[in-house]
Amino acid sequence: QVQLAESGGGLVQPGGSLRLSCVCSGTPFSLLTMAWYRQAPGKQRELVALIRGDNTTDLAGFAKGRFIISRDNAKKTIHLQMDNLTPDDTAVYYCYVHVGNNYWGQGTQVTVSS
Q1: Of 28, 31, 30, 35, whose CA–CA distance to 104 is shortest?
Q2: What per-residue confidence (pLDDT) applies to 36?
Q3: Interatomic CA distance for residues 7 and 60, integer angstroms
Q4: Mean pLDDT computed over every residue of the chain
Q5: What is the DSSP string of 21-37?
Q6: What pLDDT digit, counting tens, does each position of 45-60 carry?
Q7: How confident is the model at residue 40 (pLDDT cuts 50, 70, 90)?
Q8: I want to staple 38 with a disulfide (CB 3.0 to 4.6 A). Which of 4, 13, 14, 91 is the partner?
Q9: From the CB of residue 51, how many other CB atoms can be counted at a distance below 10 Å?
Q10: 3-class DSSP state for residue 42?
Q11: 113, 72, 69, 58: which is closest to 93 by C-alpha?
Q12: How big is the CA angle at 87 (ends 49 and 91), to the nearest 5 degrees?
């Protein structure tokens, strides 16, 4: 059974930074494409960033220049470093992987507010 566990969310002031982590278990990891999504209140879930097994990445437009996605295959973990956060980044952030089926983590709340 594939399981994803996020951590690292919290309350941060505008301009601040957070680093999210997602640990993947139950499946071989190094070749997987992993992704971060987010969902703000009243909005649809949207892709934030993804990282492939070859370490290439894609970032949503709003994330470019501010967010970095990375992976640690030894720890079966991906990270999302988020800098220069704004209130528009307030959302629940979810880790996602497709391994036969779609798997989601439980989400971690990110709140950007002064």
Answers
A1: 35
A2: 98
A3: 21
A4: 97
A5: EEEEESS--TT--EEEE
A6: 999 999 999 999 999 9
A7: very high
A8: 91
A9: 22
A10: coil
A11: 69
A12: 50
Q: Where in the chain does DSSP place strands (E)? A: 3-7, 10-12, 18-25, 34-39, 46-51, 57-59, 67-72, 77-82, 91-99, 101-104, 108-112
Amino acid 75 reads K
The single residue listed with the structure tokens 């800098």 is: 83
Paired sense of beta strands 34-39 and 57-59, if any: unpaired
Which residue shows structure tokens 């190094």? Answer: 30
Q: What are the b/e assignments for 53-90, b being 16+ CB within 10 Å? A: eeeeeebeeebeeebbbebeeeebbbbbebeebeeebb
Q: How many whole angstroms separate alpha carbon 80 and alpha carbon 72?
A: 12
Residue 48 in tokens: 């934030």
Cβ contacts of residue 100 below 8 Å, gap of 6+? Answer: none
